[in-house]
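re: ur question from yesterday

yeah so i grabbed the chain u mentioned. its 101 aa long if i counted rite. heres the sequnce exactly as i have it in my notes:
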Amino acid sequence: MVITNGMAITTIRSTYALDVETVQALDRMARRWGVSKSEALRRAIRNAERAEAGSDDDALDALDNLQKSLNLTPARARAWAMAVRTERHASSEKRLRSRRR
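ran it thru and got these structure tokens back, copy pasting raw so excuse formatting
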């Protein structure tokens, strides 16, 4: 436990096996950010977690943007769905007729 300015901060020491490239990248990040390697690792992990947590929102945002770009109104969506249903039904009927022959 580390005490700074009267507040205790719990730290957990862990050992991890990292490949040379990862350690070099960690060293570069720490130097660039002007922090210890431990702090650089903490930041990288937090950033990765935030990015991953936001990926679901990113996918939904992308879908929303696509739908907006298509000017997809509820009426146009219903018309499209009906056309697809009609096409699929016709295709199924055609396939059934060809099997009967």
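noticed a couple things. The chain has a mean pLDDT of 85. also The chain has two domains: 2-70, 73-101.
anyway ttyl
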